Structures
1.
Amino acid sequence: MSDIIHLLPDNVANQIAAGEVIQRPASCLKELVENALDAGANNIRILVKDGGRTLLQVIDNGKGMSPTDARMAFERHATSKISQAADLFQLRTMGFRGEALASICAVAHVEVNTRRPEDEVGTHLEIAGSKVITQDVTQCPVGTNIRVKNLFYNVPARRKFLKTDQTEMRNILTEYHRIVLVNPQVQFTLVNNDEIISELPSSSTKQRIEAIFGHTSKPFTAQVVDIQANTELVNIYGFIGKPEMATKNSQQFFFVNGRYMRHPYFHKAITTAYSGLLSPDHNPSYFIYFDIQPDAIDVNIHPTKTEIKFADEQAIFQILLAAVREALGKFNITPSLDFTSETHIEIPQISPQATPIAMPRLQVNPAYNPFKQSAPHKTQTQHWEKLYSQPIADTPASSEEHLLFHFPAIDQSIPIMQWQSKYIIVPSSQGLMMVHPHRAHMAILYKEMLALLSQHKGVSQQLLFPEVIELSPEDLHTLQALQDDLSSIGFGLDQLSPNAYTITSIPMQLGQTNPCETLLQVIHQVQDTGSTATQQWHEAMALALADKMAIPMGKALSDAEMHDLLTRLHLNHPAQYLSNGQTIFIILTPDEIQRRF
Ligand code: ADP
Ligand code: MG
């Protein structure tokens, strides 16, 4: 028998890699602009046509490339940014994988003009489908001018997956904001279909935020408070919105070492600091910048992922919480303020090995409820400063101490009870715990579903009466994109008509839940991620399914059921929050109980 394994040709390998790295015009643009920043440019012009489908062009005044480098840049794993594994731990550049340009030129027509300051003439290069079409000498300014035309011209499936031009442009703007907000010293211009839609001069961070999110009616400076914390472990600076600025859709940005990131855990630190200051459906705005030693964060950052892992998240959580608290308190300069030295928050210098910082305590008056008046939101928060002169109650100020609690093992002999057919009340050595049974169950199921999605091990139950689901064009798109994942966990789907499917089977674990509703919830949750990254899709799917499958709130549970749930919670999901930030359990510590008496 002859051998059947062979290496993939480069253009095929690159096209596969492009599927991961270049998912849509916005991700392509991000890579191009990051390259310009890595090249030291302080003036970057971006031109977009037709939502990036027809043209994405980035013109920078960075250090340019030599003729050889320009050619090399489009090879897979070609990078000037690292040369050995150890460099990964000292990373200060945005790129390092050497994948982006190789991926882009596999799925688009690319044209580059580039010149180094020391060269008389520049290089002109044209590449399509990973093949160099032209390379010659050209007259051009110092820097790099790269044009990506007809993205996905040779990948119809990807092209079909693109949304309307407006939606793609919105994604581009989102990426643009994430970049310009953390590079305020760089001048940016964004042109969409020949119209300048953003012109940002070199400025301070605050001016940059103002230029993007400021309103003429109310100066941005009047709406935010500075935050600052310098410790051995991390430097944090930025701005947080005054509570009255909070809306349902606030601007929330974290950046680390010049890179945008999402961080649900640090987000929790901020919402904890604001607790009692906002209506439940309002969110604080924040623009927070972390500077940290590169080796203290996970270097293996996937280009499409925005979550970043820190070596010492718990300590940073505490520092961030203290800094936000302090900023909110400092801002309050009304005479009624009683933010005396006793409650003033010192941010201790800590080394990475140090034990978590004990948090300062605020006096708590359990009877005080900042939202007890039924007045509209504005009047509730207009005088929010006063909240500092009154004890904050709704969420006890010290609740964040327990953020780091892991759910303990509960001995079978310990008596537990369910209160109002809802919360499970459990005494434990750490304190008195209250568990939200629906979310506890969700946490367990979420992990199970994620495992099924990655291992393709779902088991189906056939529906006795298959159900028909009709879908809007957008939902249809998403369903089709998810079809492999859905079938891997046990959904059986047959296309009935252009916009309808028959559901023939559902995952075993779904039991009696309504198949159409469940499927729609999965589809919508995935759409809400606004991402096309598989991992984010899986997380959204797992969360939607877990929500549908978990025991409903208000269901009376037997002792055995409660013990079983708590044991599984202890074993499977010790953290206190769901991935969407919802609290699974709370603990009243002996200290806290004593304080309340
Ligand atoms: P990475 O950024 O991970 O190194 P890329 O594929 O994005 O990989 O780029 C490959 C290389 O091409 C970079 O390491 C850099 O040397 C060079 N390069 C890309 N874009 C530019 C640019 N705008 N200016 C100067 N050099 C660039
Ligand atoms: Mg790059």
Note: Confidence is low (pLDDT under 50) at residues 333-403.
2.
Amino acid sequence: MRLTVIGTGYLGAVHAACMADIGHEVLGVDVDPGKIRALSEGRPPFYEPGLDDVLTGAIASGRLRFSTSLSEAAAFGEVHFVCVGTPQQADSDAADLRHVEAVIDGLAPHLTRPCLVVGKSTVPVGTTPRLAARLASGAPAGAHVEIAWNPEFLREGFAVADTLRPDRIVAGVTSAGADRMLREVYAPMLAADVPYISTDPATAELVKVAANSFLATKISFINAMAEVCDASGADVVTLADALGHDTRIGRRFLHAGLGFGGGCLPKDIRAFTARAGELGVGEAVRFLHEVDHINLRQRQRTVALARELSGGSLSGLRIAVLGATFKPDSDDVRDSPALAVAAAVHGEGAQVRVHDPEGIGNARSAQPQLRYEADVTTACEGADLVLHLTEWSAYREIDPVKLARVVRTPRLLDARNHLDAARWRSAGWQVRTPGRPALAVLPGPQRGTASGHSARECAAVPAAPAEGTVLSRSPK
Ligand code: UDX
């Protein structure tokens, strides 16, 4: 089939490359000429494992090319995928649909023959009929231009695998013809028994925000439990393991730590609450305010723990920060908990040196006042405290014996609960992992008290003073 993919960010670039990979003729379109130039040369404009191979393979096959022209897109495609961003509005929780609307308005006047426009961006429930009306009035082909919603569930870091082998495909359609076309687009996935759910556009739109709300709720649930563990001496990792054995609950997304960030989960739950309010059912999703609140509180707790570990004040201390991206295997720092904590610690007067394997460029643009280092050792030189804030696998390879010789005080706060605490302790480090105070007091060779933690350190951490917008939002 001849497909266009409009918007070549994280979602669109991967979708375009993968659609060409499964055999379609694809034209990727973006308003940013720099992005189009890079993609045309086989260089993804962001870090995503495996994407460069799929991209260069698709370009070499002759099935994938890029353009900045919507009229070229209209002339080329029988199916147009809309993959532009729907960020949070600057002055409210609602989604900002201006990029989606700009694509529809820019494409419509060029649509002179029947085609299917397929939205993949995450939008508030009820968006599709509005865009259908805009298309019908703006397109010369009028009612022969159909619209469908086909949400995307890919995770950064696994985007290629998630696109080629998704857990499910959800198609929100209003005609059998649109359904047929989407089944044809995804024929290789259907042949591989990927579940295909054909439904109305409203349900399709809602599936996406409901899925992200559920995932966010799971993460905030376990982080709330971590706070209870800190206050009671229980261990959140053992708790999560025990909960996860119940197949009704499951262990995934029960990893307690610094909480969720990125370009999707935070803004999607906020946009959902805003939309539910407009629909008169704000009460039904009021719990999402609490999910958001618990999530942001993990950043405050981390700063408070850092302060507590440092004897009450961070001012003048040298602090090494390991990790700036919102999660490993991504260079994305949008709403990154790690970067928010680094900025807050800097704001309390510490000299902060940040390391990240892939995210330094983006982090520097977002928080230019911080100092960035290209290697872990330099970031940790003379440090009074090391904060582990994003769980890159490379950080598990660090030799704590060697690093102990580099820092001034071997003191580690593992906010992501991902390092081998016993190994670091036996190398002489004082280690604190939120939600695991019992580690500091349990007897035995693996879980000893080498860190010198006292039961007092296990007490609940008081919330930090308001840190401005990076750490907290005004309660709704
Ligand atoms: C998410 C959804 O998973 C995906 O389906 C959707 O299409 C886009 O949003 P992504 O933003 O790439 O994907 O990240 P995800 O892997 O879901 O992680 C989100 C955040 O939650 C990260 O900051 C991660 O560190 C955090 N997280 C995840 C936890 O804190 N604990 C967990 O157990 C899992």
Note: The chain is about 40% helix and 15% strand.
